[in-house]
């Protein structure tokens, strides 16, 4: 039952090809290796920023740092495009590494925008020193390694990944409720909206391939 729910939400964003997916406790994860990497990266940076920066006035990274972060997203684009065009054969290690590089960049741009103070002049860039960059890198590298080598139980890692997918889509949905001042109500509506959107995508996916 739990596994069916996890795969239901995973189907919303992923092709779920077994040969391109990682395994834990003998079970195939609900999303492929590349998507696993993306959401491990998102989780690592998001967790760090929420713990360390949630009470700080922050804005998006500086222009120079933004350019550097965007470069880290290139490997996944190259790996994915090259694989789909059959220019070369990828593998799950390359998929999870390139996906992690892509995913851990995203919260640096989205998380600051969740605050109304992001546009204030005194707001500081979300990456103020090397620690703000390297701590998420170390965290996602360690977590990615544990997942790749199957050292975390299936329900723990698959449940975490699906939860992060729902949370991420919820955060993206939160801009629809920007005028709501009640934080708890706004968060609840955002998560419901994110889960509903993923459910629709999953049903559409099932309908198309059936």
Automatic annotation (TrEMBL):
The chain crosses the membrane at residues 36-53, 65-87, 93-113, 133-151, 157-177, 189-209. It holds the Pfam family DUF2085. The keyword Transmembrane helix applies. The keyword RNA-binding does not apply. Keywords: Membrane, Transmembrane, Transmembrane helix. InterPro entries: DUF2085_TM. It comes from the Bacteria. This is DUF2085 domain-containing protein.
